[in-house]
Amino acid sequence: MITTHLPALQIVVPLVSAPLCVLLGKARLAYALALIVCWAVFGISVLLLGQVLDNGVISYRLGGWAPPWGIEYRVDPVNAYVLLIVAAIGALVITYAKPSVAKEIGSGRETLFYTSYLLCLTGLLGVTITGDAFNIFVFLEISSLSSYVLISLGQDRRALTASFRYLIFGTIGATFFLIGVGLLYQATGTLNIADMANRVALLAENRTVQAAFAFMAVGLAVKAALFPLHAWLPNAYAYAPSVVTAFLAATATKVSIYVLIRTYFTIFGPEFSFEVMTLGPVLMVLAILAMLVGSTIAIFQDDLKRLLAYSSVAQIGYMVLGLGFATVLGVTGGMLHLFNHALMKGGLFLALGCVFYRTGSVSIEAMKGLGHRMPWTMAAIVIGGLSLIGVPLTVGFVSKWYLLLAAIDSGMWWITIFILVSSLLAIVYVWRLVEAAYLSPSPEGAPSGEAPLVMLIPTWVLMLASVYFGVDTRVSVGVATRAAEFLLGAGS
Length: 492
Prior knowledge:
78% of the residues lie in helices and 2% in strands. It is mainly α. It has a domain at 279-492. Strands 1-2 form a two-stranded antiparallel ribbon.
């Protein structure tokens, strides 16, 4: 049955379709193919999540070779959750993409965009689904190389510099991760993650294993843009085309956080990571600094893409903070914020793409009077802003609430102060947008009118999801809790 091959199809379908976008030659045909493929991939991710929740872990043997000798695609509650996030964002963003790509990238390069987009999606999905540590590196490189191309397609010449800077940081991060994998292979003699985890558990005192842990931790911190290794992120988000920024902000760092989770909790295990290597306090300090520094710098940004980029640095801090507790409540909060941030930040960057489409700018100046000129777009931005703050009935509140509960449950009540202070700082930068849009007059001759419906609908799907999952938390919290319990209780 075809359902038994869903893990392979999740990767093969977008991978094979990517070069076809160039071969088709016409932007309209390339867009149609990419649209069909992305929604098919989303459907596959939904089926995989349903299978995992109903029947348990799925192990797919490529070529029929039994692991650990052959490469295995392994789907469990953790990566099924992340697969769904990546695939859903990929489908919504490509639905939105056509008018935005035509305006910001222009004819002649549109087919290149769709090819790179599908390759990037393939890489992110591959990183998430593979059960082989070296394959994680391979798929990371596929997603990274295509990301460099996507960012460089921006109109501003600084997009090339931002792409090159991302390339340098990405190469350093990937190299550190690969060195760690090589050291683990030397110590364990295997690259299969499940098999590696079983062998690492017996080698807690081995210096090679400890060195591998350090290399992988640093490499993944760079990839995830964890403070203070986040320097590549603001420019990459600011100068990339709007559709690229929305896709990467909602998926790329989330997948890197997933690999970080998989490394700490599955390969090395919670006991080794948080007791032997005492990782918890390090993660918490870096997370709190990210929350405070990222939010503070965001307040002083006039370019809204940069503002939201620094906000993302802070939001990554929330995710890592949850992992630092190494409890079911804490990891649930971190996993939940991974999902919730993809919704609200993806929606916010799509809304900014609508603003750019109509005004040609995403500066605070361009926002003046926007509440009256683009009411639907601005309403979406307000909802996303409220979610960033953590206002009740939004997804941002739900994940922050779980982080607060985790802090109190762990006897670290003082961490709640930093969470609240970071949320108060978010009020300041969100208010700047609201003040400009609703309380400032429109400049003379400012363009008015909404973006095309095909751009507004995906934006509002994400924003309505930000409200829906803030009210009805059964699915999002239920899956995040299953994932956390799996990581801390069921092993690999």
